[in-house]
Amino acid sequence: MKQIFTIILLCLFHTVLQAEDNPCPNQNIFPISSNQGKPTDLSHHLAFTFTEKHIRHLINVQELFKTNPIQFSNGVIPNFGNTVNQYWFCFVVHNDENDNKRTVLFIKYPLLDEVQFFALRESGEVNKNIQGRRYPFQNRDRDYRGFTFATELLPGETITYYVGVKTDSSVSVPLMIANEKHFDTYNSIDTLLQGMFFGIVCVMTLYNLFVYFMVKDRAYIFYVNYLFLAAILFQLSLQGLLPVLFFPNSPELVYKAHNFLYFLFLLSCFPMSITFMNLKENAPRLYQGFMALSIIPLICLFLLPILPYRVLNQFGDSLSSFLAFYALFVSYYVSFVKNFPPARFYFFGYFMLIIGGLTTVLKYMGFFPVNVFTENAFQAAMAMEVLLMAFGLGARISVVQKEKEKIQIKAEINKQKLIAYGKELKLAQKLQESTLPQILPKFPGLAIRTGYFPASLVGGDFYDITVYGKQQICGLIADVTGHGVPAAIEAAMLKIAYMQTLAFANKPGKVLESINQVLAGNYKNQFLTASAIFIDLEQKVLKVANAGHPALYKFNQDSTSIDVIRPKGKLIGFSKEGLYPEEVHSLKKGDKLLLFTDGIWDLWQNGDSGEEALLTWILERKAESVDSLYGGIDEHIRLRAKEGPADDDITFLLFEIT
Predict the structure, then answer these.
(1) pLDDT at 22
(2) Largest Cα–Cα distance in the chain?
């Protein structure tokens, strides 16, 4: 009896010690039989606290639960965002069955840098395991993209678990428990779903790459680049598959690759989006916005070696959220406002992606239950986006092809118009050439040189020199508005009016008056400037009349200044009542006359007035012959032609009394 009493006291003492060594405050013990071994969320059984210090020993963890404020998850999956704190969880599992139970504790979120598992048995034995993204993959108890910790519970045994997590990414802890068999089944299904997703994406990547080589549309190569970086490489990192498949013994590489792939993925969105929606043509301002935003992830890539992982990761999360909604707005505008049908696939693709992302976030926040749908919503949404955008590219090719056909048809029409216009110009050129004198008259005692340089194939200038009587010559120079066929027709009308006038007009004022009466009201409300002269070689007299035209210059080798002769007169075609007074000037041997259109001033214009420069140039060469003066003007024309085509036609008449 005494021995039994001693044993009872020892047991009670041991229980008290255990109670003191096991300060987990959660009284909601998880019985293994409650889930029949199936994967079960432990959020209803978790107590947790946090610390800014980095703890690695169980004794310190237990002390933390004694001294720190304790919180309970109460069925909500713990999700703390991006934080520097280390979070510790504790819960109690009891084997209420009559045989050993091999259980697997696992965390599905793969972006935790460090995960510490402690299993405190009733006997005082402690099982420990440290794993995480920054630890070799072999530390994990199972080949699983998340983090696993396996223990075997004896019949009736109770184990207290402590789990500590810390990461530079967002802290989310979807803590689950299952027996070994059901976990293997769960892992197989998860692997199958991941395989299906990456299989679809890889097939779509290869297919669109093949299409690119067929159609040579750069939208496809940008889409392939997006698929490879966003839907394959970044998803491999986001889903924790890089250490599983490629780098099991390179945890630092896996850790550093995440942000690098993150910003590459964001950068790849821009050229794909711009070409997919033809933003440059459909929405130029939004296109400029996309181009400006594309600089941000590029800068972040260069800042990777400089700024901390956490800072850039937080910024990447904010940037990706903004870009998702911005792309949704832009695609809505282009597809429904600008009515570009292929952009609708882009809109619905991004809409699905945003819904999938929000579903995942709300699941981790505890608003949505943990199930196959919510766990795979983001990847399913991305798979839908990939398919929708593939359809959208097909629609875009169809639209672009139709646009190309329209452009080709329009180009052919324009080509035919150009051919017809070229024929019209040739006809106009011949017509205009017929209005100009083919042979200049020859008079003893008078030297004549003329220059005609149209700015285009057909110009708007006109001149004529006609013998009038035995010792008189009549000259006319005019600037007809317009170019091309209309100008040629107007010049022909002017030529006819001028020839009719010469039958009865014997002075320049009368010539201009008669031309004005014929053309005013019949000249399509257009005007022309003109200057008419009569030279009487017998009496050595010059008669001049002007209709708004540049002045006539008179000079000789003895001149100290140039005589600028410009009688007053209205433009021809302005009114039928126009009168054109004359000026009479005497002539002597050696006198030279220069008549011109205003295009000649451009040859001398160099910041200052072209007219003043021309007068200075003439005064310097006043003693030269008309042939020499003609050569000087021709040289100016050739020099100016090297700078570019002339803005206006150039026509001039040179006379010298010999």
Answers:
(1) 55
(2) 168
Q: How far from 578 is each of 285, 509, 532, 548, CA to CA, in Å?
A: 55, 10, 15, 12
* Residue spans of alpha helices (H) in 502-625: 508-519, 601-604, 610-620
* Matching residue, tokens 């042939």: 627
Contacts 24+ apart (CB under 8 A), 234-240: 234/261, 234/262, 234/264, 234/265, 235/197, 235/198, 235/201, 235/379, 235/382, 236/198, 237/261, 237/262, 238/110, 238/111, 239/110, 239/145, 239/194, 239/379, 240/110, 240/111, 240/133, 240/145, 240/146
pTM over 0.85: no
CA distance 391 to 393: 5
- Where helices occur in 163-230 by DSSP H, the ranges are 180-215, 218-226
Burial classification of residue 192, based on how many CB atoms lie within 10 Å of its CB (0-12 exposed, 13-18 middle, 19 or more buried): exposed
Angstrom CA distances, 59 to 54, 86, 328, 388, stand at 13, 16, 52, 54
Q: What would you report as the CA-atom Rg of the chain, rounded to the nearest whole angstrom?
A: 47
SS3 98: coil
- Rounded Cα distance between 420 and 586, Å, is 51
3-state helix, strand, coil in the chain (%, to 5): 50, 20, 30
**Rounded to 5 degrees, what angle do the CA atoms 634, 635, 636 make?**
90
CA 655 to CA 658: how far, in whole Å? 9
Residue 127, both tokens: 């099982």
Q: Give 10-residue mean pLDDT values along the chain (658 residues).
A: 38 38 74 87 92 92 92 87 91 91 92 95 92 94 93 92 93 91 92 88 85 81 88 90 92 94 91 85 88 93 93 87 84 84 74 73 57 70 73 63 69 72 68 74 86 78 83 87 69 80 82 84 72 90 91 90 89 81 90 89 75 87 89 85 76 90
User: H/E element holding 531?
Assistant: strand 528-536
What is the pLDDT, as a whole number, of residue 13? Answer: 36
- Residues counted in the chain: 658
In angstroms, the CA 123 to CA 139 distance is: 25
Q: Which whole-number Å values give the CA distances from 480 to 460, 498, 594, in the listed order?
A: 5, 14, 19
CA distance 111 to 531: 90
Structure tokens at 638: 């050739």
pLDDT at 121: 92
Task: State both tokens at 62.
Answer: 């237990």
